[in-house]
Write a structure and sequence with these properties.
The protein is an alpha/beta fold and 356 residues long. It folds into 2 domains: 223 residues, 3-Layer(aba) Sandwich (Rossmann fold); 60 residues, RecA protein, C-terminal domain (Rec A Protein, domain 2), CATH 3.30.250.10. 37% of the residues lie in helices and 24% in strands. The protein contains 12 helices and 17 strands. The strands form 4 sheets. Strands 13-12-11-10-3-7-6-4-5-17 form a 10-stranded mixed beta sheet, sandwiched between helices. A 3-stranded antiparallel beta sheet has the order 14-15-16, covered by helices on one side. Strand 4, helix 4 and strand 5 form a beta-alpha-beta unit. Helix 5 packs parallel to helix 7 and helix 9 crosses helix 11. The radius of gyration is 23 Å and the shape is globular. One of its GO terms (biological process) is DNA repair. Belongs to the RecA family. Keywords: ATP-binding, Cytoplasm, DNA damage, DNA recombination, DNA repair, DNA-binding, Nucleotide-binding, SOS response.
């Protein structure tokens, strides 16, 4: 580059740094953080599908799917993982449906989780923005976009037409939130519901609520589907769930993950690990029997899962081998299934932080 151009560029950069702060413009190779930091999802198979080991920090994530597919469960697992690593989390409960007892069973420290149950969509998004701009939050969840009702709609009559109010609200909020999320290195997670397009004869008639803005601003979009029920005898005790990464700006998209969500414990980490180990031939399945080296894990998948839960050191060893195969970081401590009694998590300490 010519000397005159170099001097002109150096002068311009010096003026910009003086006006807006150091590092406002830099060469990509000089960036302090090139690797994407991530918060584990609570499912090893989903961490692998996401490509960076979990939900990316400093980005917006959208989790959508049909009713009772596991969207809130995924959010609570992300909160539990962040808290386990010393993080602070917030939950904007727009649907007013958060169950503290279930959150405690999943592993969420309900006594340190900041919860808000706002009255309007504007209030919910202002609270989310304030939490993000505090630079103290690791994860902020907004559950859900469909429940973000604009103030004008609440104050109006039933049956009044309010065309495009929610979409405009989301578009304005996301324009303000994106930069703040990046600056604070917060993971902002929105859940969303599905609706049917009217008159669609060909192609997928499903769409999400809240307009198009979130589809553009989200770095990761996850489609969550319940594919079958898990039964013990005649009783349904859980569901087999498939998550498809529909959009991913930090790794290749369209990967899938399948795991069990058990009704009394959330994501079955033992079942997830067992499926991955079998697919990588770390655990060998012959007929109905599962074995790891010379160790017989059990006959049938449920017995093998129970064996891994009862032997966390062995589960940690298999976890390490699976992570090595996928080039992921190693979890040093055994990651056993978390089971917190409801009485210990909620009833004895009922004072969950709330902000109206």
């Amino acid at each position: 580059m010519e000397t005159g151009k170099v001097k002109a560029l150096e002068t311009t950069l010096a003026n910009l740094n003086k006006k807006y702060g150091e590092g406002i413009v830099m060469k990509l190779g000089d960036a302090a953080k090139l690797n994407v930091e991530a918060i584990p999802s609570g499912s090893l198979s989903l961490d692998i599908a996401l490509g960076v080991g979990g939900y990316p920090r400093g980005r917006i994530v959208e989790i959508y799917g049909p009713e009772s597919s596991g969207k809130t469960t995924l959010c609570l697992h992300a909160i539990a993982e962040a808290q386990r690593n010393g993080g602070i989390c917030g939950f904007v409960d727009v649907e007013h449906a958060l169950d503290p007892a279930y959150a405690a069973k999943i592993g969420v420290d309900v006594n340190s989780l900041y919860v808000s149950q706002p009255d309007t969509g504007e209030q919910a998004l202002e609270i989310a923005e304030a939490l993000v701009r505090s630079n103290a939050m690791d994860v902020v969840v907004v559950d859900s976009v469909a429940a973000l009702v604009p103030r004008a709609e609440i104050e109006g009559e039933m049956g009044d037409s309010h065309m495009g109010l929610q979409a405009r609200l989301m578009s304005q909020a996301l324009r303000k939130l994106t930069g703040a999320v990046k600056a604070s290195n917060t993971c902002l997670i929105f859940t969303n519901q599905l609706r049917q397009k009217i008159g669609v004869m060909f192609g997928n008639p499903e769409t999400t609520t809240g307009g198009m803005a979130l589809k553009f601003y989200a770095s990761v979009r996850l489609d969550v589907r319940r594919i079958e029920n898990i039964k013990q005898g005649e009783e349904v005790v859980g569901s087999r769930t498939r998550v498809t990464v529909k959009k991913n700006k930090v790794a290749p998209p369209f990967r899938t993950a399948e795991f069990d969500i058990m009704y009394n414990e959330g994501i079955s980490t033992a079942g997830d690990l067992l499926d991955l180990a079998v697919s990588e031939e770390i655990v060998i399945k012959r007929g109905a029997f599962y074995s790891y080296g010379d160790i017989r894990l059990g006959q049938g998948r449920e017995n093998a899962k129970a064996f891994l839960v009862e032997n966390p050191a062995l589960a940690a060893e298999i976890d390490r081998l699976v992570r090595e195969r996928h080039g992921m970081s190693i979890v040093l401590e055994p990651k056993a299934q978390v089971r917190i009694p409801v009485s210990a998590g909620v009833e004895e300490n009922p004072s969950v932080p709330l902000a109206a």
